[in-house]
Amino acid sequence: xxxxxxxxxxARLETIVSELERGDLPLDESLKIFEEGIKLxxxxxxxxxxxxxxxxxxxxxxxxxxxxxAYNFDDVxxxxxxxxx
Length: 85
Fold this sequence. Notes:
Structural class: mainly alpha
């Protein structure tokens, strides 16, 4: 669900940028949609930060230390299989 909100927010941000770049809106309307864009931008950054924290948790080793490595779906499948045995 969060990814859907993220995608919708990004799509709206793209629309806002296009509208502002055209430069044909009155000042009041430009400020209004600029403010909306700032709010959407902050919401997107929050969602990205949350996703990054989840990824960091997923790649922690058994001692709780973070190891930078490429995320491998096979590792998760193998761990899930081992837990179910």
